[in-house]
Amino acid sequence: MSSAVVKIEDLHKIYSSGEVPVHAVRGVSLEIHRGEFLALMGASGSGKSTLMNTLGCLDRPTSGRYLLDGVDVAALGRDALADLRNQKLGFVFQGFNLLSRTTALENVELPMLYARRPLAPRELHARALHCLDIVGLAARHDHFPNQLSGGQQQRVAIARALVNEPQILLADEPTGNLDSKTSVEVMGVFQKLNDAGITIVMVTHELDIAHYCKRNLILRDGRIVRDEMVANRLVAAEELAKLQHAEAAAKLTGAPA
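Predicted structure:
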C-alpha cells in the first residue's frame, strides 16, 4: 500500500474570469509521502500558490485527480470537504491571523469549536495548552497578540494549526514577515514537528528557508521543473547556535552582529 498522503494526477487549473484563460497549473502529477517536509518554490505566477490552495482543498482543480489520504476530493460535497479539511489539514499563513482581543490560548482553541465532535471546555483548554507547550509558549498562554513578538505570534498560529491533530501542515510563506533570526527559530519549530511525524508542505521564495526542508519542488509556468531532495540540509538548532555565538562575539567587540 502506498504511503502517499497526497497523490495528484495530471492536475490542471484554468482561471477564465477574464477574456484570456489563465493556465495556473498545467498537468502536475505529484506524490507526497507521510513524514516529508516539502518546499514549494517558484517565481510569482509559477503556480505554487494555486497548487497550495488545491492541496488545502480551498480551490478545486479544473481537471485531474487529487487524493488526500486516499479520499478523492472531487467526489466530496461542500460540507464533507470542510470536514476533511478540518480533520486532516492545518494551515499557517504569512500573516498570523490571530484575533487581537483574544488570548493565545483562546486563539488556539478556535479550530476545535468547529469540530464535528464537540469537546468539553476542560478538554479544549488542555489540548490548546499542550499545543502551546509544543511550540514553547505555554507560559504565555494568557497573553494577547499585541503582547507577543512576531515570532511568538507565528508560533501561536502554528499551535492553532496543530490543535486538531492534522496529518498535513500547510504553511504559506510562514517566515515572510519575520527577521532572519526569528525565521530560523520558526523553522526549528517546523523541524521539530516534522521529526515527530507531521507532514509539512511549505510555500517559500527564500532559498535559505527551503534548505531547512527535506525536499524542494520548483514550479515554472504551472509545471514542475525540478523535484529534488535537499543536500546539505540546514538544521535550525545548529544555525541558531551560530547566530547566538555571533551576537555574543559582537557584544564583546562592539562590532555589529
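Summary: Helices lie at 48-55, 78-88, 104-109, 121-134, 150-162, 180-195, 207-210, 236-253.
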